Task: inverse folding
């Protein structure tokens, strides 16, 4: 390189350096943070059994900046007058399947991933207008959904995706039909439609379960979901069975721990839970038939139980997803274990809300609202149910550690520094659970989606998605048409 060229490059580099150094002296002011001030509200903070009356809450960008009396805001802040309504954290569903939005036979035989994905955009909008600002998705290819919600392409709650649930052959996630291949473990193309779409995966032996786990982590899983026992909606695995060997489970847990996250397991009985605990599983989803000793072991290990309590409700007899051959068994078990919720609390177990309905999403929406009410009957406390929907669920989501995409603050609480995921409701949910949608009707309820009229404002990440206070709508706010299209619910089946 000639001296002249070298000198020219040095001068150019110096000029660039001067420009960078001089940038702060241009006098350009940093844009002031966006603020929303919510005044005169009674606060349920997600952790306290009572309301903190007469509060103002200042939101700055996507976080709660300050809580107190007579707070000020800069001149161009949006001010929302609460008029004595209740301000509470956005709700969290700890176990949902937003990507399984029709009944199993339809998904299995007559849907592809585009059918599922298009329907899901409406499913997540309805979650949000119902007040659910975070959802832990426990089986399905929800990674693209999460990315597009976070990017603002579509509207919905925060998604904590598990990816494909992992099941052994003959397990709760083995949805092959009797006529499908599978009499030999070596038959090529031995995949159900669920597997082809990434809803679940069948894996046996340590090498296969490691690969399935790592693939989910590669795709963006915030936690790993495995099938640790039988179930009520699956065809070929009795509900009392224990699934996966200790070696397989421990391999999955170790692979998840290598990525700083945890494993959740579908499970029901003591034997299965003991094996799962030995390997370090943290989330026990369902668990209806475990003993109080096992409950204490879960509590000691710092685990969580995430049950959909409708599973032991009398209305299970009306559930179209339960195989007729299993209805009597499911109802009998529901009666036998009707005190399950009270026992969990008595033994110090942390419990998280779960709707966990897989099927036509009009049914799932009704199940979610019914579940809110039914839990008040099984846990004997609105406060306990509200904690399960907010602060305790937020603790569970935080177990994802470095795989948690939302690290700016805690979820499920109203406190300074927390995410501004907020609901403004008319009434006191500690006294009347119906103000957040709880209803004693399930399959008898009208399948047409209707707004919960007592939820007046829904905010997620500091942005207003529903505002019925004064008619002012943010650009992100949903219109009626956004979440009320009825054309794809009910018995919709794609044409061949």
Result:
């Amino acid at each position: 390189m000639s001296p002249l060229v070298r000198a020219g490059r040095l001068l150019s580099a110096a000029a660039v350096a001067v420009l960078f150094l001089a940038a702060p002296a241009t006098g350009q002011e940093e844009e002031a943070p966006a603020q929303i001030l919510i005044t005169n509200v009674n606060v349920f903070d997600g952790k306290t059994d009572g309301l903190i009356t007469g509060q103002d809450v200042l939101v700055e960008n996507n976080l709660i900046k300050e809580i107190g009396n007579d707070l000020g805001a800069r001149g161009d802040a949006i001010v929302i007058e609460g008029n004595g309504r209740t301000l509470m954290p956005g709700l969290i569903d700890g176990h949902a399947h937003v990507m399984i939005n029709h009944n199993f036979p339809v998904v299995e035989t007559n849907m592809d991933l585009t059918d599922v994905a298009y329907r899901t955009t409406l499913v997540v909008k309805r979650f949000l207008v119902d007040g659910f600002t975070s959802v832990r998705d426990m089986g399905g290819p929800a990674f693209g959904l999460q990315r597009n919600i976070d990017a603002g392409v579509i509207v919905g709650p925060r998604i904590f995706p598990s990816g494909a649930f992992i099941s052994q052959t003959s397990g709760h996630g083995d949805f092959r039909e009797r006529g499908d291949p599978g009499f030999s473990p070596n038959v090529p193309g031995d995949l159900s439609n669920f597997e082809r779409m990434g809803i679940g995966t069948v894996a046996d032996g340590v090498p296969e379960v490691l690969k399935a786990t790592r693939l989910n982590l590669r795709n963006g899983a915030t936690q790993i979901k495995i099938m640790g026992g039988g179930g009520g909606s699956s065809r070929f695995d009795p509900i009392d069975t224990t699934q996966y060997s200790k070696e397989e489970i421990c391999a999955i847990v170790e692979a998840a721990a290598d990525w700083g996250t945890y494993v959740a397991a579908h499970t029901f009985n003591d034997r299965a839970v003991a094996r799962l605990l030995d390997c370090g599983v943290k989330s026990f989803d369902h668990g209806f038939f475990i003993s109080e000793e096992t409950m204490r072991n879960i509590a000691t290990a710092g685990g969580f139980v995430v049950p959909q309590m409708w599973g032991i409700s009398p209305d299970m007899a009306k559930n179209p997803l339960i195989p007729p051959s299993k209805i009597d068994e499911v109802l009998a078990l529901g009666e036998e274990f009707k005190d399950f919720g009270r026992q969990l609390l008595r033994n110090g177990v942390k419990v998280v809300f779960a709707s966990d309905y897989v099927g036509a999403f009009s049914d799932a929406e009704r199940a979610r609202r019914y579940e809110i009410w039914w839990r008040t009957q099984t846990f004997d406390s609105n406060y306990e149910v509200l904690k399960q929907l907010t602060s305790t669920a937020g603790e569970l989501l935080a177990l994802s550690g470095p795989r948690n995409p939302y690290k700016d603050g805690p979820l499920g609480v109203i406190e300074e520094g927390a995410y501004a995921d907020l609901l403004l409701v008319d009434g006191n949910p500690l006294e009347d659970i119906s103000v957040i949608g709880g209803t004693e009707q399930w399959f008898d309820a009208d399948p047409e989606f209707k707004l919960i009229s007592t939820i007046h404002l829904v905010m997620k990440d500091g942005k207003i998605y529903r505002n019925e206070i004064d008619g002012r709508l943010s650009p992100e706010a949903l219109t009626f048409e956004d979440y009320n299209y009825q054309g794809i619910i009910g018995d919709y089946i794609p044409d061949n």
Confidence is low (pLDDT under 50) at residues 1-28, 485-496. The first strand starts at residue 35 and ends at 43. The two ends are 68 Å apart (CA to CA). The domain at 36-90+418-484 is CATH 2.30.40.10 (Urease, subunit C; domain 1).
